[in-house]
Design goal:
alpha/beta, Rossmann fold, eight-stranded mixed beta sheet, three-stranded mixed beta sheet, 7 helices, 28% strand
Length: 282
């Protein structure tokens, strides 16, 4: 009896990975249809970001650049809060690009562009290293051996470009926001976007994974170089304070420092001229 029940359950799980359907979720004020395609699905994660976006989006006009789209987790939050905002996403994983195009079409999201590339400091093909056994690993990194203690399940060859090599092909007047979630490649992305930061002064939502210890020289040096670039651009770092799914506020910090807390990895990097406008959440 137990064996038959387990057999049916396993069969049902396998079947779900081979059929397509849709589910409906509510993101802030918007009802969003989420396609499930061969087991791929955009889940509503990091719900605290909705509260953060509600506060920040009113501070600046212009397009929202999403560097590291994955399955569209930031896209659905942005469109839930501000459906009319121009969205330009950069994602080198071809499986993720296919899925997000379906998500956009299913919901008829307006003013959305997905570029099937990563942002980097040179134009070439490099390997996206996946540490989880999935083609859409959200922890995959463009930085070789970024997690030396984790086995690499597989490597996906992907194209990366300097932003200036493709900027003329993009349709935008102003950039108001840049979100960077690229599992260790933040430094290369920011270097690629330096001219954009100088010209448009976007508000930046940034994830920087922990250094863990001062002995992790590679991560520590890259983090300090990243901080130095933003300091030269007259930007300041604010750590995102949240409790579970709730956004609490922002805390100004002088530097990220050495820590091991995965709940302390999210930052808003703000042009100094805009700091006065966020005093209600600091």
């Amino acid at each position: 009896m137990l064996k038959r029940m387990l057999g049916k359950l396993i069969g049902k799980i396998k079947l779900q990975n081979h059929i397509n359907f849709s589910k409906v979720i509510k993101v802030h004020d918007q009802v969003i249809e989420v396609p499930v395609i061969l087991g791929l699905s955009c889940d509503l994660t990091e719900i605290w970001m909705i509260g953060l976006l509600k506060h920040l989006l009113k501070q600046k006009e212009g397009a929202f650049f999403d560097i590291g789209v994955n399955l569209g987790q930031t896209l659905i939050k942005l469109k839930g809060v501000d459906a009319a905002r121009r969205y330009i996403g950069f994602e080198p994983n071809p499986t993720c690009v296919f899925y997000v195009q379906q998500l956009i079409q299913k919901n008829k999201f307006e003013d959305c562009t997905i570029l099937p590339v990563g942002l980097f400091t040179e134009n070439k093909v490099i390997f996206l290293e996946c540490i989880n056994d999935t083609e859409v690993d959200s922890a995959a990194s463009l930085i070789k051996n970024f997690r030396p203690d984790h086995a690499v399940y597989h490597r996906i060859p992907v194209p990366v470009f300097r932003f200036q090599s493709m900027s003329d092909a993009l349709d935008f007047d102003k950039v108001g926001f840049v979100k960077i979630d690229v599992e260790g490649a933040e430094l290369e992305v920011v270097k690629s976007l330096c001219e954009l930061f100088e010209a448009h002064r976007p508000i930046t939502l940034l994830e920087v994974l922990p250094v863990y210890s001062s002995g992790n020289v590679m991560r520590k040096e890259r983090q300090e170089e990243l901080e130095g670039i933003f300091n030269e651009l007259n930007y300041s770092f604010f750590r995102v304070i949240k409790h579970g799914d709730e956004f609490i506020g922002l805390k100004k910090i002088e530097n990220i420092g050495v820590h091991s807390d995965l709940n302390q990895c999210d930052f808003v990097v703000l042009p100094n001229e805009l700091i006065a406008g966020i005093q209600d959440i600091v």
